[in-house]
Automatic annotation (TrEMBL), chain B:
Signal peptide: none annotated. Pfam families: BPD_transp_2 (PF02653). GO terms for biological process: amino acid transport. Its main location: membrane. One of its GO terms (cellular component) is plasma membrane. It comes from Bradyrhizobium yuanmingense. This is ABC transporter permease. Keywords: Amino-acid transport, Cell membrane, Membrane, Transmembrane, Transmembrane helix, Transport.
Amino acid sequence: MSVVREAIVADADDEVDGAMADGAAAERVNDRAKAGRKILPIVEGLVLLAALLAPLVLQDYLTVFATRVIILALFALSFDLVWGYAGIMSFGQALFFGSAGYGVALLARDLNITNIFLVLPAGTLIGLTFALLLGGFLLLGRHPSSVIFVSLGTLTGSYAADRLARGWYYLGGQNGIPSIAPMSLGGYDFTEGPAFYYLVLGILVVVYLLCRFLVRSQFGLALAGLRENEQRIAFFGYKAQHLKAIIFTIGGAVAGLAGSLYAFHEGFVWPNMVGVVVSTQVVLYVLFGGSGTLIGAVIGAVIVEGVSFWLSDNYRDIWPIILGLLLLLVILFRPLGLISFVLGERERVGSFGAKQKETRNAP
Amino acid sequence: MANAFVAAFEILSFGAIIVLIVLGLGIIASMMGIFNFAQGEFVLLGAYITYLAYAKGLPIWAGMVAAPFVVGALGFVLEALIIRRFYAAPIVAMLGTYALGLIIREAVRGLIGGFYLTVPEPIGGSIDIGAMHISAWRFTIIVITLLVMGLCYLLLSRTSFGLRVRATLENPSLARASGISTPLIYGATFAFGAALAGLAGALIVPVFSLFADLGLRFLIQGFVAVMVGGVGSFIGPVAGAGVIGTLSAALPWVMAPVVADVLVFVLAIVFIKFRPQGLIAGKGV
C-alpha cells in the first residue's frame, strides 16, 4: 500500500518537476514532505503566470489597479521578511515605505530628478537608512529588547512620522505632495499602463528571487531559528540582535523600493503613506496570505486588495468590518494564513541542503 | 499670571484625560500582560453610548452612567469568547485585539457616518476665579479622574477582589491551587479595564466630540504612557500617563506644536530604551 503511494507520488514528482526528484532520496522521504516540496514551486509558477497574463485580459483601468497591487505585494514582502522569517513585529513598516515615497517625491519636485536609475536606488537607500537607524536603536544594545517594546516602538515611530508629515509645511502638510512628474528612462516616461505594470512585475520577481535565496541560505535558517526560539539561537553563538537588525534593514530597503514605485505610480504622496493605517494594512496582507512564506505575502496582498476593490462598489461600508472578522478568524483558526490550506508545515519551514534533508526524514 | 494659570489648568485637564484613558489600558496591560489594541474602541463605544442617550432625548448624565456598564459587559463577553485564547502569545494578542478594534471602529463608523457629532456638556458654563474663567466640565473631569484613580487604588489594594487579582498576576498556578478561579478573575479584570475606557469615552465626548477615529487618537499615546510608567503595577501606568499627558499639553506652549508632538514620542521611546522597566518598576499595586 505504502509502496504504491510512494510510486504514485514519485510519478507525479517526475511529471511536475523532474529536476527536483531524486530517485534514491525519494524512497526515504515521506509522502508529506515530498508533497510539500512540490507545492511551493507550483503555487509560485501559477501566480507568476497569472501576473504575466493579467494585462492581456484586463481592461486598462484594471491594469492600473493591478500595478498598484503588485507594488503593495512588494511592500508585503518586506514585512514578511521581518515578521514571517525573523519574528520581529514591525508595526511601522509604512515608515520606510512612506519616507522613501516622500524622498523621491522631493527629488522630483525640487531637483527635477526622475531618472529611474537614480530614483529607485535613492528610495531603496532612504528605506534602508531609516530602517537601519530605527532598527539599530530599537533592536541593538546591551540588553535585548522585548518583542512588545519593538512592536510598540515601530508603531510609535510610524505614528510620529505621520504627525510630522501632517504638520510640516515643506512636505505639503495634510495634502502631501501632488502631481509628481513621471519616472523616466532616457526620453521615455513611465506612465500608468502595461509598461509600468511589467516594470513593477519584473522588479517584484527579481526581489522575490533574491529574498527566496536569502531565506533559503544559512542566514535564513538562523532567522527561522530566531523566530522559533531566540534564546536557543543565542546559545549556539549567533549574535541574535545583529541578525535581527540586518533583516530589519533589508526589510526597510525593500519597503523603500516599494514606496518609491508607489509614489511615482500614484503621482502623489500624502501623510497616510507613512502612518499607522498603511502600517497595519501590510500586516493584514501578510497574516491573510500566510506569514513565513514569501508567496503567502504576495497572495495576501492580491486577495485583500482584489476583494476590497471588487466589493467597494456595493459594500464599501461593511467591507472593513468583514475584513476585521476574517482577520480574527484567520488569527484564531489559521495562524499560518490562507497558504496553509495548500502548503504543509514542512514546506513552509523549508529544507536546507540535500544531505540534511535525508537525515532529518530518516525514520 | 492669569495666563500662566489658564495654561496650568489646560495642562492639568489634558493630563487628567490621558490618565483616565490610560487607567483601563494600564490595568489590562499590568494585570494580564496584554496590550489591548481595542482599548481605543472601548473609549469610542463609551462616547457613542453617551451620544446615543443624548440623541434619544435622555439626560446626558444617564448615558455617562450607562456607558461603563455596557462597555464593561461587552468586555466580559469578548474576553470569554476571544481574548482568552491569546494569553500565551502577547504579539498574537495585539493582532487579535487589533482585529476586534477594527470591527468595532468600522461598525461605529457605519452607524455615525464620517461626521463629527457634538454632545453638550452636562455641566456647562465656567467657574470664575477673579478675572479668570475655567471650563466647569473640564474641572469636573479632573475631579472625577482623581476619584476614579483613588477608588481603583483602594479596590486593588484593600479589597479581597484586589487581592485575588494581584495573586493571579503574581503566580497564576499558585492562585489556582489556592482556590481562586483565575479565568473568572481575568474576565473580571478585562471587563473592569473596558468599563474604565467606556467611562473615559463618556466623559471626554463633550470635549472632543464624537468621530470614528476618536479612540485611535489616544491609543498610541496610551501605549507609550504605559511603557514609560512601567508595566506590572497599577501606579506605573498612571504615573506614565501623568508624565506623557503633561508633556504633550505643556510642550506646545514653548515650541512649535508639530515639533512638540513628535518630540514627546521620541523622548518617550528613548526613555523606555534605556529604562525598560519604566518609571516605577515592580509588580503589585
